[in-house]
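protien #1 (seq + structre)
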Amino acid sequence: MVREIPRGRLMLESDAPYLLPRTLRPKPKNGRNEPACLTEVLREVALHRGETQEDLAAHSTACARAFFGLPTIS
């Protein structure tokens, strides 16, 4: 299903704090999902979409910036 989402409409999030990514190893000792786990979400989504992590990060960040009206940081 994630392959069907157009590039301009895909944003990533972490479901913090209750749902750890299933593929996260090792699991945090505190059992909490935190924003730092977003890299694992990125890795899995990129894998299933057949994209590089760098490309997915760039276009999902651009999508989030446009959606929330955030400035581009250089």
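ok now protien #2
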Amino acid sequence: IDKCDKELVKIFERRLNAVLDVLEYKRKHALPIFQGQREKEVFKKVNSYLQNDEFSNELDLLYGQILKISRQVQSKALFPFNIIIIGFMGSGKTSVGMELSKLLEMKYMDTDEIIIKNTNMSINHIFEKFGEGKFRELEANTLEDLQNINNTIISCGGGIILNPKNIKLLKQLGKIIWLKVSPNEAYNRLLGDSSRPLLKDDFSLTNLTNILEKRLTLYENASDIIIETDGKNFGEICDEIIKNLLKCDSKI
């Protein structure tokens, strides 16, 4: 078994080096980096190599992990920084962040969820009991605590850009993606959602538009990349983010 393990490690290392070589080739020739169809073909091909069909489920599990690790290695090489997602409520930050996390095999965090966990209180409750100012302070504390993380996708609360200190902390953390959404689109997406404290007393298109318009310049000034989200599904938005990130300078 020791001999097998030694050979496995050598082959595994060789495969990861090959993954990086292929990655460099793709970058040089402007080819798509992450190809889901190609992964399906790999699964089919490796199963044809198996001599004992009794181990086919185990082989699927093994190659599932190998392909995840391969994506992770590629992501580290391509994006040696955290990916920060900002935007107005209803822009899809959480859903896009989670989808992007799966595609790139990067860790995922949500600043609102961190605050909820640390305070054991809902966002609505924090606003009601302590006010918006206290919540913005908690956001800043959260960003300070995240300064040493890496290879992570971070979705932020919609108003995180209202505090200038937060913008500075975000820029130190990584590349900032603004998911831009129109008032009408945000309103339609938020219908029936009672978890938004700023809309609790006036859930109207007029109120939502007023809040959004006051933030537009802040979002734009904070962002490295702007993605229009109206009429797009999460997969399309993620593809657009990746394409834009590939054009970015790797330095923060």
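The CA atoms of residues 37 and 103 lie 13 Å apart.
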